[in-house]
Design brief:
This protein has 330 residues and is an alpha+beta fold. It folds into 2 domains: 48 residues; 232 residues. Helices cover 29% and strands 39% of the residues. Strand 3 and strand 4 form a beta hairpin. The radius of gyration is 31 Å and the shape is elongated.
Length: 330
């Protein structure tokens, strides 16, 4: 009986010990993925910003500029690309919509971002673009990989259409969450004007004919929860200028937009709560269950060996005590 029980325990120990690395190295890459149909939005605000008045072509102070960023998954496009890519793919159609204090559009720049659902590496396919211009992304954008490391990453900048390092600056605590702080500085760079301009009749082509060009720089900061790779907070010190040409009336340059763009408080609270929830799910696959199954396997193995040792114990060599003689009746 003991031998049968020890064999059963030994089989269970082998099963759980084998399941531990399978969860971490096989199941985790296949289960921890960005959903192809995900939709999310984010509102950022730049208070006391500087904004160009295209009517007078002069910069002025405004109480706030609002940036609305949306990301919408295109499931049909993702499935079509997966057939040739041979891996799970996410296609995000993004839009960065900037509006002034009066609610009118300042600029809007659409994007199509195609990437690996687990690693977040770019997947190059037809349709990858920024503001209608085909691009070939290198590096990450919007989200870091699961199990983010304390190192620099390559980050794609949609304004310049280039990839630059974003530097790991240290570990911090943000709203009770352990985060890695990253920072990237994009130097002054000549960039295209948005295809859609805020004033009727003004187009990138008409501005180009005047000889006026658009320049941009930013300091980009992210606080990233390392288990999920999701930023819980982000901000940009953003500056844009128009330079040269006859459009400026002889001036060398004029500020088109300048401000410290930060996430709105309600979106910070929502993002932190969502990241905490998703962090637990990822840790179940990478830490809690693998370690728990390994510990259980070791415990079952020890119990099986103990039962086996009891079953192999030799019988007691001492003779049994003699039984007293029973009285014999006449």
């Amino acid at each position: 009986m003991r031998r049968t029980a020890s064999l059963v325990l030994l089989a269970c120990a082998v099963f759980f010990a084998a399941l531990s690395p399978l969860l971490r190295w096989y199941a985790f890459p296949r289960l921890a993925k960005i959903p192809a149909n995900q939709y999310q939005d984010m509102v950022l605000v730049a208070k006391d910003a500087t904004l160009l008045d295209y009517g007078t072509m002069k910069a002025k102070k405004v109480p706030r500029v609002t940036v609305v960023q949306t990301l919408k998954g295109d499931v049909a496009a993702a499935k079509r690309i997966e057939r040739t890519a041979g891996r799970d793919v996410v296609v995000w159609d993004g839009l960065s919509y900037v509006q002034g204090p009066d609610g009118k559009m300042v600029s809007e720049i659409p994007e199509r971002y195609i990437f690996d659902a687990h690693s977040q590496e770019p997947v190059h396919a037809t349709g990858e673009m920024v503001d209608g211009d085909p691009v070939r992304r290198e590096g990450i954008e919007f989200k870091w990989p699961f199990l983010t490391e304390r190192r620099d990453y390559e980050y794609f900048d949609a304004q310049t259409r280039t990839t630059n390092p974003i530097h790991y600056k240290g570990t911090q605590t943000f709203r009770g969450v352990k985060v890695y702080y990253f920072e990237q500085t994009v130097p002054w760079t000549k960039v295209p004007l948005p295809k859609k301009m805020p004033v009727q009749g003004i187009t990138p082509e008409s501005v180009a004919r005047t000889g006026t060009t658009r320049w941009y720089t930013t300091v980009r900061r992210f606080w990233v929860e390392p288990v999920t790779g999701a930023p819980v907070y982000g901000e940009e010190i953003h500056k844009e200028e128009l330079r040269g040409g006859t459009l400026l009336g002889g001036r060398a340059k004029v500020t088109a937009f300048a401000g410290d763009v930060k996430m709105r408080e309600d979106y910070i609270e929502h993002t932190v709560a969502l990241v905490k929830q998703n962090r637990t799910l990822v840790l179940m696959l990478t830490s809690y269950l693998p370690r728990g199954f390994l510990a259980l396997g070791i415990a079952l193995l020890a119990l099986a060996l103990w039962l086996e040792a009891l079953g192999r114990r030799p019988p007691d060599p001492r003779p049994a005590p003699a039984r007293a003689a029973e009285p014999v009746s006449a």
